[in-house]
């Protein structure tokens, strides 16, 4: 089976591409060529790598045709962020491929209302990223219903894994929060620390894509979450990380207006985005239709990333 992975050298592709190779797929990866996978795997030696500037080719209206001319059976799109980009690809491969898989985001849901949130929950996205991804989902699933486009959408949560910084227990990406928890120092959390995060290990996101390919007949025309089987509160996350370092979390709490004055505007913006969503998404549909259950819990996914940060001297213990 010939499979094209668009953006295949990032977080998800690091795990997905080698598994596709081991399953017998003939894999071509399209990427900007600006980075290598986050960890090495001999399977990459059997992957065809093509350097592509998708944004430029989308602007020129040529990207979809470039993909179609590779004559793939399966296309996995990990880096599509606008409806126009999705449309160009979908129209170019319609009637020519067996399966199109698109990487979405749980941000299509907007703020949590009833949890765990199911895939059929009405969409109320906010922020440009979530709004654009919801529009892509609506377009692709609409094309599936009207024109038979064989598409599946996978919505990851906060992707974690060795090689990059996970969202921290304050809901942003300041490594200093991990330093404090590792050292047993005090950490100030917003509100009462009861908002939630929905981490997922990149290997489990890859697993949902693989399960959807293997269960094509039940996956086509559907959206699936790709998160850990549980969500974690900011407070619970902080306590879990501190405990991993052999410390007891020294936590204090501050109302939002008080807390945001203690951090940079960038960190405050990231935290606000995370806690306004407070995601807690269900994996029942993936279990029922794809037979997939995540390997990593929310805390395990983050700790795998934190362990790498410690080993590489990025967290001070």
TrEMBL record:
<feature type="domain" description="NAD-dependent epimerase/dehydratase">
    <location>
        <begin position="4"/>
        <end position="220"/>
    </location>
</feature>
<dbReference type="Pfam" id="PF01370">
    <property type="entry name" value="Epimerase"/>
</dbReference>
<dbReference type="InterPro" id="IPR036291">
    <property type="entry name" value="NAD(P)-bd_dom_sf"/>
</dbReference>
<protein>
    <submittedName>
        <fullName>Nucleoside-diphosphate-sugar epimerase</fullName>
    </submittedName>
</protein>
<dbReference type="InterPro" id="IPR001509">
    <property type="entry name" value="Epimerase_deHydtase"/>
</dbReference>
<dbReference type="InterPro" id="IPR050177">
    <property type="entry name" value="Lipid_A_modif_metabolic_enz"/>
</dbReference>
